[in-house]
Amino acid sequence: MSEQSAPRLLLQAEGLKLHFGGIIAADGINLSLYDGEHLAIIGPNGAGKTTFLNICTGYLRPQGGYVRFENREITAHPPRDITRLGIARAFQIPQLFAEQTVLENMLLAASVRERHWNPLRNLHAIPERREMEELLELVGCSDVRDRVASELPEGKRKLADIAIALALKPRVLLMDEPTSGVASADKFDVMETLMNALRKAKVSSVFVEHDMEMVSRYATRVAVWAQGKIQTTGKPDVVLNDPEVIRNVIGG
Amino acid sequence: MSKEFLTAIPDGAAGTTADGSLPVRQERRGNVLMNKEFLAFIAVAALLAAVPFTFGSSITFIAMCLAKGLAVLGILILLRAGQVSFGHAMYFAIGAYAAAFLSSAFRGIDMMVLVAAAILASGVAGAIVGVFVTRYRGIFFGMINLAFSMVFYSILEKAFHITGGSDGMRIRRPTLLGMELRRAEFDVAIYYVILVFALLSVWLVWRYLRSPMGEALRAVKSNETRLEYVGLSAKSVLLGGYIASAVLCGLGGVFMGMVQGLATPEHAFWTRSSELVFIAVLGGPAHVAGAFGGTVLFEAVRTYAAALLDDSWQLILGVTLILIILWAPGGMVELFRRFTGRNRVKTVTSGEAGR
Questions:
Q1: Which of chain A's residues have a Cβ under 8 Å away from the Cβ of B228?
Q2: DSSP state of B247
Q3: What is the pTM of this model?
Q4: Where would I find the ABC transporter domain in this sequence (chain A) (predicted)?
Q5: Taking CB atoms and an 8 Å limit, are A100 and B218 in contact across chains?
Q6: Do A89 and B229 touch (CB under 8 A)?
Q7: Out of B6, B19, B207, closest to residue A120 by CB
């Protein structure tokens, strides 16, 4: 922050603490996300990666510490308020409106974003419809556009979940294992498309990821989680070659 | 911002020509569907409008069906959100009692004033109670509504110096737009007023359920987490639907009260609430027409089966409901669609779009 040319600070977590009984999910997490960054979170299962996302989006209230977004305190605010401020979330297990079509899922998100609450206007008649169709094309979901969300194969559900988050035009997108569930042959294509979309839309991101290949290719910075703490952070090529990280996280 | 989003499409992300033709085809399909439904709506409206000239003796029966159908329409809105209320007869009673109090306080009061009062009273009550009950879902939602309605029922029964106790209150025949009407004229006049309000409500609810707010109701049923994470409070979505459903029940109540000339605590009793739910399930929650179709069937069975088989009309209705739940869980709406060969719309479009 002291540097003159430093990019703008978007999301800042300071001293986050959270224990579930004897399990330490967050033990003094300090992390900052700057504009234009794509931060990968890696670490073994149960290290508290998803907990961090849950705290950032207000789903969990930390027992200590705070979260700030664009210099505004958002600790334990309702998820809907945090979402409206510009932090969108994609889930490890896709969260879709199961009864509606993929397009309707998107249109609903766009309606909330633009506050279309006229009870006489058809959901399909909102002006953002074209934009949403194009967004679905962008993430490769236009082939399932008119299918009911509950009928989709897992890979498409995942993409649709991310598309809904993007439909909100967020400043920051938090993704929990964005390509798990996507067929491994398509993983890189999907991530490539996704990251291109994020860059073009100037959306910064935080993503939890287990695939180190993916991390080294797409992350601008990596944070290594271990037992509710951040073990180390830095550039992917540095962090991923750190012997301790290799021993604890990568090598297993 | 959105432009940038659009230009970010990589080459060959999708077959644009194949896709370009889709929306057109789908919209046309949508229009045909809407026109058919609209024509059916007009036809039913015309038939009902002709009833006083053709089957004049049944106008009171149909008026009562329409009044009750309005309340069932309210239940239907909540079913969209996956919620069942066992206490909505309370709003029905509030509508009826609003008319009763006003007509006893002011002689020669106008029907439109009574209707407006019922809308206001049920809407305000729905908003106040709704703030509490929309925190709950499923069985708790149903039960807490039941509790509120039974408290209200007890108040109506016990406070007899104000409410007339279990005898209820008379609703004097109101004027209509300033005109004094005799009994026979009034029966026809109120029939048309109810018909107009029923048609208007059907149209409004039909539009509402297709609007973002109405579609969000379905999202309350399917995924509240995602709803929160697109920036919307599931509670306020449900509250909106709850108030709308309360107002519809209030409208049903004021009309029923004016047709019968009476408001009784019986209106608020829990069996009345479950009757509304029963009819909604019987008719089918998938379409607004289900509310009225269900009501007509229900009332017809009750009236005619009671005449034929004395006390066994409940048995007949019970068996009917069991059959419906087992073989056509979508109610009469589903049966209608099966017989007319119209599949569920969604399945048709998804099959097409998948190619």
A1: 78-80, 83
A2: H
A3: 0.86
A4: 11-252
A5: yes
A6: yes
A7: B207
Query: Can you tell me the mean pLDDT for A118-134?
Result: 91
Tell me if residue A201 falls in helix, strand or coil.
Answer: coil
d(CA B42, CA A77): 49
| Residue B30 in this model has a pLDDT that exceeds 70 | no
Residues belonging to chain B: 355
Q: Please, which residues have CB within 8 angstroms of residue A18's CB and are 6 or more apart in sequence?
A: A25, A26, A48, A51, A55, A60, A62, A63, A64, A228
Distances (CA, A) of A149 to A102, A174, A206, A225, B31: 6, 21, 25, 33, 23
List, in order of start, the domains of chain A with CATH numbers: 9-250 (3.40.50.300)
Cβ of B233 within 8 Å of Cβ of A78? The answer is: yes
Helix, strand, or coil (residue B3): helix
Give residue A175's pLDDT band: very low, low, confident or very high (50, 70, 90): very high
Confidence of residue B34 (pLDDT cuts 50, 70, 90): low
Structure tokens at B305: 């089966």
Domain boundaries, chain B: 58-268
> CA B156 to CA B169: how far, in whole Å?
10
Q: Which amino acid is at A1?
A: M
Comparison of pLDDT for B313 and A219, the residue scoring more: A219
Nearest-CA distance from B118 to chain A in Å?
22
Average pLDDT over residues B208-232: 93
B1, B2, B5, best to mutate vs chain A, most A CBs in 10 Å: B5
State the helix-helix crossing angle for B270-283 and B89-105, rounded to 10 degrees. Answer: 120
Mean pLDDT is highest, among A21-25, A186-190, B130-134, for B130-134
**Contact residues on chain B for A84, CB-CB shorter than 8 A:** 231
B169 pairs with which residues across the strands? B263
Q: Measuring CA to CA, which residue among A129, A176, A220 is closest to residue B229?
A: A176
Phi, psi of A36 (to 5 degrees): 90, -5
Please spell the DSSP secondary structure of B142-183, one letter per residue. Answer: HHHHHHHHHHHHHHHHH-HHHH-GGG-EE-PPPBBTTB---H
Rg (CA), chain B: 22
Q: What contacts B284, CB < 8 A, 6 or more positions away?
A: B290, B293, B294, B328, B330, B331, B332, B333, B334, B335
